[in-house]
């Protein structure tokens, strides 16, 4: 089995993948912590022959995790943000400072679509662009839905936005405080993503496929105004591309990858942007 770990600042996700069939056997998530317990936090390691890790947690968390794994697992692969990988040139002046989860998303998106806008809707919402040809432009970071709610300190932080809500409902004025908060932060998030996408496509003269991942991708997706796809395993896809261990991965197939969304014509994106600027 292959154990894939996506360690975030708050939540850590894992999945077990069959090394022969490339099928996903199980998955889970736990709060990120300093001390990891196989069998409770992550699967028992006696069935694991290789591990791939993407981590944005504190260095001590990553170091402790790697030390634990290397006691029992033959191969442990840790992803790093690099100046260039898999045909993509990192747009950061200091490539190592780009969050590795964003880098994995960019690499996965590029392998899938040959140029894309990747949006990760987690604790923060990150928006990155890579052009056809592999030039990563850099990106944007804004507060995620939960972080925006916590910043208001109105006692509504534990009342989540229903991911099954329709966008029209979430964009309507709230008639009680919880609704006003939820609808306000939703409006802020989806408006920012829509505007960022349109502005960058206009400036670069290219309409890019849009891919969303992260815990809030499903609800944010409902307010995105251009064709797009939700790819929950996009960070894992980057790990598969960087460290291919199965026959399917070596052939370029990433588990759970969606069909590439066909973007709007650039002229339509520009027309929408021009109209919004007139209002």
From TrEMBL:
Top-level taxon of origin: Bacteria
UniProt-annotated binding residues for substrate: 92, 99-102, 177
CDD domains noted in UniProt: ASKHA_NBD_PanK-III (cd24015)
Binding annotation for ATP: 6-13, 123
Note on how the cofactor is bound: A monovalent cation. Ammonium or potassium.
Listed HAMAP family: Pantothen_kinase_3
Protein name: Type III pantothenate kinase
Origin species: Halomonas beimenensis
Lineage summary: Bacteria, Pseudomonadati, Pseudomonadota, Gammaproteobacteria, Oceanospirillales
This protein's encoding gene: coaX
